Amino acid sequence: MNNEQKIEQLFHELNNQWDLKYRFEWGKKKNSLGTCNWGTKTIYIHRAFLQVPWEDLENTLRHEFAHALDARSRGYSRHDAVWRKWCLVTGCRPDRCTQVDSTLLPPAKYAWVCPQHGVVSTSHRQSKVKYRCAKCKSPVTQKLAAYELA
């Protein structure tokens, strides 16, 4: 069984275990392993991260279920002490983010380039916002990362 099948199977098991009636969807985000939308009662695991170790995927799904249970109990959820108690129930680490090996991350499409310091940041989406370099305060420009990171 591959990670995709394992995630879907575990989702249904946990959803039934806690009688949440949530939907599961594969997401498209490239900066987060999973998300929980308690308004639409949907948990997303983002396909871009299917290659991370199974333990991280399982932890992410349990993390999102902790948000779902937290939201059911108080109407909202955030990474606070109450949510961390739900993490004990779902069996996930009470961390806000899973640290993933950077070689497993999807490559950024854009790079923020400082004329003095070169590439200072990367992003997956183009931005219309103007930024400045944190070191020298020079304006930075957004360019296609493939050309700047090569």
Plain-language structure description:
There is one protein chain. This protein has helices spanning 3-17, 54-74, 81-90, 145-148; strands at 23-27, 34-37, 42-46, 110-114, 118-123, 131-132, 139-144. The protein is of the alpha+beta class. The chain has two domains: 3-100, Metalloproteases ("zincins"), catalytic domain (Zincin-like, 2-Layer Sandwich), CATH 3.30.2010; 110-148, no CATH class. The strands form two sheets. It has a four-stranded antiparallel beta sheet. The protein has a three-stranded mixed beta sheet with strand order 1-3-2, covered by helices on one side. The longest helix is centred in the middle third of the chain and has 21 residues, at 54-74. The mean pLDDT is 89.
Strand and helix map with partners:
Blueprint: H1 3-17, E1 23-27, E2 34-37, E3 42-46, H2 54-74, H3 81-90, E4 110-114, E5 118-123, E6 131-132, E7 139-144, H4 145-148
Parallel strand pairs: 1-3
Antiparallel strand pairs: 2-3, 4-5, 4-7, 6-7
Question: What characteristics describe this protein?
Answer:
150 residues; Zincin-like; alpha+beta
Give a brief rundown of this model:
The chain is α+β, with helices and mostly antiparallel strands and 150 residues long. The chain has 4 helices and 7 strands, in the order αβββααββββα.
